[in-house]
């Protein structure tokens, strides 16, 4: 979501500051290239961080695979992802990302830091998703659309 952009960039920058192998800058360019403003809250953070670590091409491919999109472009992958539960897509992309990280030569030296970063970002992303779902549920309850039995 566009309203979430600054927070996502701030969180990924904080993670990159802890990572000895981080590539400098360009998060705003990644955000735009991946159409993150069209992704649900939480998923936007996870996809931005995945692209910062693994690159745009693999991230788009994994997002497409998680959402059953055939030969996705960033905008098609974002549209497909917005039609799926964000938590499920996060878990699917996480599994692709872990497999890719294990194949990198630096895995032996940096695996603890890479996995910890992945887990911290995933935790933040899922919290964002949960807050969004709780806000929607609260709005439905406040409108009298849902009644507790």
SSE order and pairing:
Blueprint: H1 5-18, H2 27-33, H3 43-54, H4 56-66, H5 74-81, H6 86-102, H7 107-142
Helix pairs in contact: 1-3, 3-4, 3-6, 3-7, 4-5, 4-6, 6-7
How would you describe the overall organization of this protein?
This protein has helices at 5-18, 27-33, 43-54, 56-66, 74-81, 86-102, 107-142. The radius of gyration is 16 Å and the shape is globular. The chain has 149 residues and is an all-alpha fold. Helix 1 (5-18) crosses helix 3, helix 3 runs antiparallel to helix 7 (107-142) and helix 6 runs antiparallel to helix 7 (107-142). It has 7 helices and no strands. The chain has one domain (2-140).
Notable features of this structure?
mainly alpha, 70% helix, single chain, 149 residues
Summed up:
This protein has 149 residues and is mainly alpha-helical.
Number of strands: 0
Question: How many domains comprise the coordinates?
Answer: 1
- Give, in order, the helices and strands: HHHHHHH
Strand content: under 5%
What's the rounded overall pLDDT mean? 86
Q: Helix/strand-derived class?
A: mainly alpha
For the sheet with most strands, the description reads: none
The residue fraction in helices comes out at over 70%
Q: Per the principal axes of the C-alpha atoms, what is the gross shape?
A: globular
Rounded Rg: 16 Å
> Helical stretch count?
7
Low-confidence stretches: none
Roughly how many Å apart are the termini? 34 Å
